[in-house]
Amino acid sequence: MKKITLILTLLLIGNTVFSQTITGKIVDIDNNPIPYVTLQIGPNYGVITNEEGVFTLETDNFSDSDNVSISCLGYKSLEFQLSTFTKPTYVLEDSISELSEVFITNKLLSIEEILENVRANISKNYPVNDNQRIFMRESSNFNIKDFDFEVSKSSNFNRATIKDINKNFETMSQLMVNNNSKFYEDTLLDLLHIADSTQSHVIKSTKLVNVEKDLSTDAVNGKLIKSVLNVLDSSATYKLKTSIFTIEDSLKVGKILKEDSDAKKGETTVINNKVSRIIRNNSLVENSNLDFIFEDKGYEYSIDGISYLNDEATYSISFNPTKRSAKYTGKMYVNTSDFAVVKLEYEFAENRTGSKMNLKFLAGFKFEENAYRSTVIFKKNENSVYDLYFISQENGNYVYINRSLKFIRNNTAEHTDKQQLKLKFMIEQDYIAKSELFFISKGSLQGDSAFKITKEYPISYISKYDPSIWKDYSVLSPVQEIINYQTN
């Protein structure tokens, strides 16, 4: 019996099932981190390195004989048996060739011919929208350049109360102006495509933020409104006006204060629209951001060489705008065989901007999108078509708001005396918003998502990043700034 037990033990040792977390880094030959490298174990599990080249693999249910493959466009692929995948750092070598080295006998295509083939093969290379499970990491960096607030007019309020409000806002202004704040929000969701629309089911969401120092637009507005509401009659309703416009006829102060205490929720519609918009902006469809593919007359192009991904050659094509209507500069990588765009890197060219609105003197509002950068990666699946695999989109924005708000208490049998409070506030702010979407899987959605459409979803506010929260999912590893983030 002991002999049989020993034999079985030896057999099991020979094919051990791994159950551990492996963290490492991918660098180039100069020891520079390589972002967005794919690490794959089997056909259904993979992760991607973050912008610092760091990855985290969960090896539950894999055996030591399974292989880990490492691949990235422009670099030679590597493969290791899981049992030997123990180094903290792996080095990838460049895999780039000149055109003449590749197309010795084949006809060299012109830029125009390559782009024509790209457009002609879009329907073949990219599938109809399918259901997707997505991990999204958002980071926002806010800087308040100027801030001013005062109670300019009041009736039926104690003078000392008004003086205290103005003093509090003066202190707030001193703390906010020329200061920065940053937060990170991680969300796992399922995106369901229905005809031309989408719906989302949020599985899990966390937010890493110092609430006391949060300078986001929503947070600043919330602090302003809450400070004012605290001096209003919580049993009454108020008419809220800005300039000549009425925003709310019957604002219930008590209800808003109660809702504020339970504000750790997100609106499903908001995140659904945000994810859908990012996907559309970066997909090969007309009216997306990719006018350099569909409206090539406004750009000049050059073929820089040939890069490789898993032994498949891709054209490396640079582009720059030649007309004011063209906004972007960057690179696209096009498969030389099927003409699929496999990767995009693009940003606003010099002296180019995005959306803007200047009603500074008319309505006290100005907005300008002054920076934009995007990286998009597609991945060939088992059916030889290309799915969205990763998107990183970064926007830089400027906002100026100079408004007045007036709270007027509605008369009732209990409240017959007139009470009103008029405020003036101005805020000038720069902020950078970055969204990273990692497409974990597609097709039929299974597991813990029954795809229930809910109006809101809970957000877990955390004081420090905790990797165990995401242990059961393929997610982006945190960058060092997230690991070091302190909320107190």
Instruction: Briefly note the structural class of the backbone.
Output: alpha+beta
Overall tally of structural domains? 2
Major sheet details? 15 strands, mixed
Q: Give start-end ranges of low-pLDDT stretches.
A: 1-15
Note the total helix count: 10
Number of strands: 26
How helical, in percent, are the residues? 10-25%
Euclidean distance between termini CA atoms: 60 Å
Shape: elongated
What's the average pLDDT? 86
The radius of gyration computed from the alpha-carbon positions, rounded to a whole number of angstroms, is: 27 Å
Q: Tell me the β content.
A: 35-45%
Signal peptide: 1-19
Organism: Winogradskyella pacifica
Keywords: Carboxypeptidase, Hydrolase, Protease, Signal
InterPro entries: CarboxyPept-like_regulatory
Layout of helices and strands:
Elements: H1 2-13, E1 17-18, E2 21-27, E3 38-41, E4 45-48, E5 54-58, E6 62-63, E7 67-71, E8 78-81, E9 89-91, E10 96-97, H2 99-102, H3 111-120, H4 122-125, E11 132-155, H5 159-176, E12 180-194, E13 197-208, H6 217-229, E14 237-242, E15 245-252, H7 253-260, E16 265-267, H8 268-281, H9 291-294, E17 299-309, E18 312-321, E19 328-335, E20 341-348, E21 356-359, E22 365-380, E23 386-409, E24 420-442, E25 456-458, E26 460-462, H10 480-484
Parallel strand pairs: 2-9, 13-26
Antiparallel strand pairs: 1-6, 2-5, 3-4, 3-7, 7-8, 10-17, 11-12, 11-24, 12-13, 14-15, 14-23, 16-25, 17-18, 18-19, 19-20, 20-22, 21-22, 22-23, 23-24
